[in-house]
Amino acid sequence: MLAVLGVHCLVGGGQTPILAAGFHTIANQFNVSLSKMSLTTGVYMLFLGFGSVLLSPTALLYGKRPGTYFLFVSAFASRMV
Q1: What is the largest CA-CA distance in the chain?
Q2: Which residues contact 55 (CB under 8 A, 6 or more apart)?
Q3: Going by fewer Cβ within 10 Å, which terminus of the chain is more open, N or C?
């Protein structure tokens, strides 16, 4: 479990500077504040951590299919709102 969390932190930590490089350009293009643009990376990193901590034990207990269905339904519902 600790190894999985470490790999996710390594991958997520490597993506953050890449995403942050274009914050000013994207914020100006979409007329949003820089703090709202920073929130996108923060939420991304937050759910990256929650996903590995919550879904990995769930997949071990119940299999991968219930977790996949839950993620599909939640992603679909978030697009409908």
Answers
A1: 46
A2: 67, 71
A3: C
Q: 51: number of CA atoms within 13 Å, CB side?
A: 16
- In degrees rounded to 5, what are phi and psi of residue 31? 55, 50
- Backbone dihedral region for residue 32 (phi beyond 0: left; psi -120 to 50: alpha; all else: beta): beta
Helices (H), 63-81: 64-80
Identify the pLDDT of residue 31: 92
Q: How far apart are CA 19 and CA 41, in angstroms?
A: 7
pLDDT tens for each residue of 35-74: 888 887 778 778 877 877 888 888 888 888 888 888 889 8
